[in-house]
Amino acid sequence: MAGENQFRSVFKYYKSKKPPPSFTEVIDLHNSDHWDLFREHDATASTATEHEEVQHTNKISQWRVGSYKAAPGLAVVRNVFSNTDQLYWASKCLKEYSSDTFKRNIDHPSLNLAVGDWWEECQEDASLVDKLRWSTLGYHHDWDTKVYREDNRSIFPPELASLSSQLATVLGYPGYRAEAAIVNFYPFSASLSGHTDKSEHNLSAPLISISLGQSAIFLLGGTTVQEVPVAFLVRSGDILVMEEGARLAFHAVPRIVPGPDVWGGEGFCSDYLALHRININIRQVH
Q: What is the mean pLDDT of residues 13-25?
C-alpha cells in the first residue's frame, strides 16, 4: 500500500516475541554464501596501513572488508579482533567508558542514583547492572536538541581514537578524527528504534559501529520509511562502517539475539557479555 510504513512493519516483525520471527531472510555476515553479497576490498591497500598497527587487534592483513553491493554506503569489517581483543575492548567499555568522567544515563536526576564508579558498585549491588544503558565520550550527544556544543564535551579516549582512525583509513578515509562516541549497553530485552544519523556537521565522514557480546539484528532501509529494510545478523567483533548514503538511511536494531561465546575468560566482564550486547558508535563531528 502506498505510504505504508514498511520500516516499522519489519521492525515489529523482528522485535516480536510471540510469535518469534524467522531469520531465513536475514543476511549473516559470517555465512560464506551471504558474503558474496559484498564486494571485498584489500584491507592493506592503503599505504598508511603498512607502517601502523593498532594494539589489541589482529594484523590488518587479516581483516576482511566488504561493501554491501545492494545499498551504497554500508561496509563491514570482520576479523579485526581476536577473542582476547574482544574481551579487552569490552572491559574498556565496562571499566572505563562507564565512569563518571563521561556522561551517562544513570546520572540523570530523575533516576535518583548516586553512582560514581559503576564498575565497582554494580558488583556489590546487582540492581545497578542494567541501570547503565549508555555513556557518551568526547562531544556529548544531546538527546533532545541533537546538537553538539563546545561546552558539552569530555576527553575522547586516545586508544579508541587510534582504532577508529585506522579503521577509517582502511576504508579510504585518511585523516579521520574520532570526536564523539555513544557506548550502548543492551540487555536481551532492549532494542533501538528506527532513525537516521545526521546530527554531525561532517556527514561525509563515516560512522563506525563496533559490536561486542551478544548478536543483534540490524535493519538498513532507505531514505523514507516506505522502503522495505534489509536485515543483517551482526555478531561479536563485527564492525559496521556507515558512509553518508547509509547513515542518512533509516536503520535500527529491533532485537538482541543469543550468540556464541567467542571471548571466553571468567569474571564479571565475561558474565556481562553472556547476557548483553555492547555497541560503540563513533563519529567525527567536524
A: 96
- For 243-249, what is the mean pLDDT? 88
Q: Are 136 and 181 in contact (CB under 8 A)?
A: yes
Q: What is the pLDDT of residue 51?
A: 44
Closest by CA to 14, choosing from 22, 6, 24, is: 22
Specify burial of residue 7 (Cβ count, 10 A radius: 0-12, 13-18, 19+). buried
- Residue 164 CA to residue 281 CA, distance in Å, equals 10
Give me the residue label for grid cell 585518511: 174
CA distance 254 to 12: 7
Residue from 65, 61, 30 nearest 44 by CA: 61
Query: Can you name the residues that pair with 41 across neighbouring β-strands?
Result: 65
How far apart CA 100 and CA 104 sit, in angstroms, is: 7
Q: Give the model's pLDDT for residue 261.
A: 84
**Three-state DSSP state, 260:** coil
User: What would the grid cell of residue 24 be?
Assistant: 531465513
List the grid coordinates of 271. Answer: 558474565
In terms of Cα–Cα distance, which of 86, 93, 84, 43 is closest to 67? 43
Q: Which three cell numbers stand for residue 83?
A: 577473542
* Among 41, 42, 137, 54, residue whose Cα is nearest residue 96: 137
The CA dihedral of 21, 27, 30, 34, to the nearest 10 degrees, is 140
Q: Which three cell numbers stand for residue 283?
A: 563519529
DSSP for residue 167: H
CA dist., res. 182 & res. 221, Å (int): 22
Q: φ, ψ for residue 96 (rounded to 5)? A: -105, -50
* Whole-structure pTM value: 0.94
Whether pLDDT at 47 is above 50: no
Residue 77's nearest CA partner among 234, 214, 186 is: 234
Q: Please give the Cα distance from 114 to 111 (Å, whole number).
A: 9
